[in-house]
Amino acid sequence: MTDFRFVFGVMRYFCVRNVCDETFAASGDWECDAGADCAGGADGARVAGAVPQMNALAESPLIVIVGPTASGKSALAVWLARELGGEVVACDSTQLYRGFDVGTAKPTVEERQGVAHHLIDVLDPREESTAGGYRERAIAVLEDLRARKQLPIFTVGTGLYLRALLEGLADVPLRSEELRERLWASVAAHPPRHLHRILKRLDPVSAEKIAPGDEQKLIRAVEVCLLARKPLSEVHRAGSNPLRGWRAVKIGLSPEREALYQRIHARTEAMLAAGWMEEVRGLMASGLPPDAKPFDFIGYRELHAMVNGEMKLEEAKAAIQQATRRYAKRQLTWFRRDMQIHWLSGFGQDAAIQQQALALAPDQL
Questions:
Q1: Using CA atoms, how far apart are residues 25 and 335, in angstroms rounded to an integer?
Q2: Disulfide engineering: 46 pairs with which of 35, 132, 142, 328, CB 3.0-4.6 Å?
Q3: Which range among 24-28, 90-94, 259-263 shows the weakest confidence by mean pLDDT?
Q4: Cβ neighbours for 52, distance < 8 A, ≥ 6 positions apart
């Protein structure tokens, strides 16, 4: 009975802080895609119901540009913004972080051509980026752009963040670092499968779907059970909170694969020549902990290893290029599922592609 006493000890601990009731239904289904976070796709997402929504009776247009990395999304967005009177909103989990500039392909001042950009450099590297947090910031930007009658043009590298913005998130609770610390401490103090036994008592169906050794998912599962005060399946059945008051025109860039790979390789060389290595050295010297999330971004982890003497330059360069190619492929796989995207076969810098994108806008704006 030790495991069960621990569960109710944790529950009583948080009941004192008005986090949960004295009773808790410890059964339910686990509805979470394989490999996805169980907080509606974004670990630590804020409750979607708390996010203010637009007036559904007055829809305003927004443009979404998707595509693989290095396909020219930023260039196309700036061009359209100048043509249509808009502002650019980044939808990329890496560009949110201050100080991580070269390797995340943030548009430079010159590349922005005087067009206002939003949701770049809004997080400290020690902070955690989540889809829920992005959604809150993006909705605030949209409200401002609507008030100023500016067209939002999103450049999307992170498909999950776009989905969170447009489709909403399930009403899952915020992360509780205090509860997580207690759960991790319990894992360290008990034999293997301890946390799995706890989850099995709280939610047998969930326990069947999570491997006993997958401690990260087990921690989140138990956390949600305790903080939500009801089975996660009920949370998901309640539905998400989609963005209202906006209609999206989605444009996809799909250059020929070999041309894209050549551009990825050339861009890696250009980034290194532009001081990427020096940027990494400076970040490391600033006292930023090595486990800071941005150090795990493509390129930053390889250059971090190189600075530590674990890789040579050519090895790091090859690893970056390979990882970027794979990432581009994953991005295309994700975006191809969306049947609402109008695909253009080329790069965003191409004049012909820009004209094709412009021709799409009047038909749907």
A1: 38
A2: 132
A3: 24-28
A4: 139, 143
Confidence of residue 36 (pLDDT cuts 50, 70, 90): very low
Span 104-116, pLDDT tens digits: 999 999 999 999 9
Q: CA-to-CA distance for 79 and 69, rounded, in angstroms?
A: 18
Q: Please state the pTM of the whole predicted model.
A: 0.72
DSSP assignment of 334-365 equals HHTT-TTEEEESS-TT-HHHHHHHHHHHHHH-
- Write the secondary structure of 154-201 as one string of H (helix), E (strand) and C (coil): EEECCHHHHHHHHHCCCCCCCCCHHHHHHHHHHHHHCCCCHHHHHHHH
Mean pLDDT calculated for residue range 55-68: 82
- What lies within 8 Å, CB to CB, of 265 at 6+ separation is 321
Question: How close are the terminal C-alpha atoms of the chain, in Å?
Answer: 62
Residue 349 structural domain: 49-169+242-364
* DSSP, res 97: B
Instruction: Note whether residue 41 is domain-resident.
Output: no
Nearest-5° Cα angle at 97, 126 to 42? 75
Same domain, yes or no, for 330 and 249? Answer: yes
**Domain total for the chain?**
2
For residues 51 and 86, the model is more confident at 86
Same-domain check for residues 75 and 220: no
Do 69 and 115 lie in a common domain?
yes
